[in-house]
Amino acid sequence: MTTHAEWRVLVADDEPAARRGVRQLLAAFPDFAVAAECRTGEEVLAALDAVRPHVTFLDIRMPGMDGFEVIRRRTPERMGAVVFLTAYDQFAIRAFEAQALDYLVKPVSEARFAATMQRLTRLLRGDANVPRIPVTTNRGVMLVPLSEIDWIEAAGNYAQLWVGTRSHLVRESLRELEQRVQGHGFLRAHRSALVRIACVRAIRAEGDGGCVAVLASGANVPISRRQRAAFVGAVRSVSS
pTM for the whole thing? Predict the structure, then answer.
């Protein structure tokens, strides 16, 4: 381990090639250094006490004890930051429920790995750990901070997150997401849309007596008569 590295890393994977791959990717981030490598879940539990890593890159399927069992026995609060690194994409939601910081699907691109390292750096430097929502993209699973979401609209049993002009479909209902974003500046505009109030640039009256919220992205989200008073009041409060 190099002396100038600020943060210790534990790499847990039963495949030597996978562990070597993490080392190679980490070479571009001199603030992080590998303090230990593990092949099994039992080895991970021992190494957590021996080296006290700041970050653990954790495989899911390992001999004897999988990654989820490691976290269950250790508890998330005593794990430090966990990044799952796996060949399987179907465990992403379970991983975030286990309070993982990120979920990387092999093979990992340099750009995707760099994004994870940026999040780790912010976390370890004490920046606010902004709540995030996992979404599936053609590059794998990524975490979208609530602070980057402009608005959310219902799409049947799914919901669509809008980040500027880009959108992500998530397998949660709007009602479920509303509970998750409570306290983070979102408010219902109508029964099928939640808007982050800080993104509203204007409220425009419509000819039929209705009104719409004009967002910084250019999106226009109708405001129902039932929600209008609360919505307009919240926008005015933020503006003032």
Answer: 0.56
Q: What is the pLDDT of residues 204-235, one digit of tens each?
A: 998 777 899 999 899 999 999 999 999 999 99
The highest-confidence range among 78-82, 91-95, 129-133, 157-161, by mean pLDDT, is 157-161
Q: What are phi and psi of 208, to 5 degrees?
A: -90, 10
Residue 124: pLDDT band by 50, 70, 90 thresholds? confident
Q: How many CB atoms sit inside 10 A of residue 52's CB?
A: 12
221 & 109 share domain: no
Q: How many structural domains does the chain have? A: 2
Q: How many residues does the chain have?
A: 240
Per the CB < 8 A criterion, the answer to whether 31 and 6 are in contact is yes
Query: Would you say 162 and 216 are in contact if contact means Cβ atoms under 8 Å apart?
Result: no
What CATH number has the domain bearing residue 185?
2.40.50.1020
Question: What tens digit of pLDDT does each residue of 36-46 get?
Answer: 999 999 999 99
In angstroms, the Cα distances linking 213 to 10, 140, 218 are 47, 33, 10
- Asked if the model's pLDDT at residue 4 lies above 70, the reply is no
The Cα 94–Cα 91 span in angstroms is 5
State the first-to-last Cα distance of the chain, in angstroms, to the nearest integer: 51
Angle at 192 between CA 189 and CA 197, to 5 degrees: 30
On whether both 228 and 119 belong to a single domain, the answer is: no
Asked if residue 77 belongs to a domain, the reply is yes
Cis amide linkage into residue 134, ω under 30° from 0: no
